[in-house]
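Example S7 (structure tokens).
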């Protein structure tokens, strides 16, 4: 996609409003930052910004006065009154400078709102429109990067429409989202959409080798485990454990043990998380079920290590033709209900009770030789 963006800039054909449809844990933000730096660079060459001109240096430090960032926020211990992106720029720079391959929960953790919903509302659009009324400081374009754009509420979106439809000549909007279907159709009709291509395990392995100088075997193993998710791959590389994997292991262990009390307590704990955190847990759980089911059809060697390897070796046989559809349906139903504000404790406890039946259904199927390989 970089080549597409550079060609549009070089030919003076860059749309004033665009949307990058990013993959989960993908390169959407990194692409937006690259486009911004290339657009403002004073001496671009061979499809890349020079990296040394004043504009490039400011972009790399995320301190360019004509580049504005909008991201989902909420009140926290530091910001108790008006929650707008500008009040969180210090945390934003620190997080994104370390790595632009971030997920929504990484951002929520960075600003201490793990148990809240981040959003873009009336205060945010007011601040944005004030910046739109100003001239560019450097005499070139102004760029507005709106990350996780699907988090804008209806008030923000409605007031944003005119800016998208009738922008000034020196303004570029870059919307980034994993869920464009959650944006108003009127917003989508006013932007040009660029979809990030899925990243194969081989491509991710090469990226890790080139970017972080990982040995090929290690990069290959991490890429396989991450399934195209760059953010997960980088965390894996730095041995940063994901809490959701621990939560999932505990969930399945309690279901296997038929520990009703333990599952009720687990459901209470999970329900205390934000809806975003719960939806993220569902996405990751669905990936585990899918991976475990597919592992039944590939070679015995698994590119995992330590506790993770033990978990997959022990759990994978229990996910098979007898229960895979049930697991997938139950977790997708849980996500549907959470999205619609159904009592989360009830949702998760109901899912837990069903999991007891499904995991033992899979255990029996694994222990019984069968010629049937599908439902």
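Recovered sequence:
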């Amino acid at each position: 996609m970089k080549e597409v963006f550079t060609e549009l800039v070089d030919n003076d054909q860059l749309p004033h409003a665009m949307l990058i449809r990013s993959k989960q844990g993908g390169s959407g933000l990194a692409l937006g930052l690259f486009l911004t730096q290339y657009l403002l660079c004073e001496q671009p060459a061979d499809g890349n910004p020079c990296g040394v001109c004043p504009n490039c240096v400011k972009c790399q430090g995320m301190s360019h006065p004509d580049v504005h960032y909008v991201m989902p926020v909420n009140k926290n211990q530091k910001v108790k009154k008006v929650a707008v992106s500008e009040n969180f720029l210090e945390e934003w720079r620190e997080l994104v400078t370390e790595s632009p391959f971030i997920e929504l929960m990484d951002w929520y953790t960075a600003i201490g709102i793990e148990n809240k919903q981040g959003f873009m509302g009336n205060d945010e659009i007011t601040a944005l429109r004030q910046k739109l009324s100003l001239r560019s400081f450097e005499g070139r374009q102004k760029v507005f990067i709106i990350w996780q754009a699907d988090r804008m509420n209806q008030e923000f979106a409605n007031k944003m429409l005119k800016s998208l439809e009738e922008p000034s000549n020196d303004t570029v909007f870059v919307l980034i989202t994993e869920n464009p279907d959650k944006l108003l159709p009127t917003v989508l009709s006013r932007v040009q959409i660029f979809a990030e291509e899925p990243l194969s395990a081989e491509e991710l392995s090469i990226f890790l080798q080139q970017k972080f100088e990982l040995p090929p075997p290690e990069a290959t193993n991490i890429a396989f485990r991450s399934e195209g998710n760059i953010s997960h791959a980088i965390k894996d590389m730095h041995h940063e454990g994901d809490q959701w994997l621990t939560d999932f292991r505990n969930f399945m262990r309690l279901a296997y043990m038929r520990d009703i009390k333990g599952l009720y307590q687990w459901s209470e704990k999970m329900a205390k998380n934000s809806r975003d955190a719960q939806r993220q847990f569902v996405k990751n759980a669905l990936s585990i079920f899918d991976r475990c089911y597919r592992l039944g059809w590939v070679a015995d060697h698994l590119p995992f290590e330590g506790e993770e390897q033990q978990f997959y070796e022990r759990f994978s046989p229990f996910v098979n033709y007898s229960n895979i559809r049930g697991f997938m349906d139950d977790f997708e139903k849980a996500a549907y209900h959470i999205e619609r504000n159904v009592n989360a404790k009830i949702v998760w406890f109901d899912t837990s009770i069903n999991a007891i039946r499904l995991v033992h259904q899979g255990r029996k199927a694994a222990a019984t030789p069968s010629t049937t390989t599908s439902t």
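Notes on this example. The mean pLDDT is 90.
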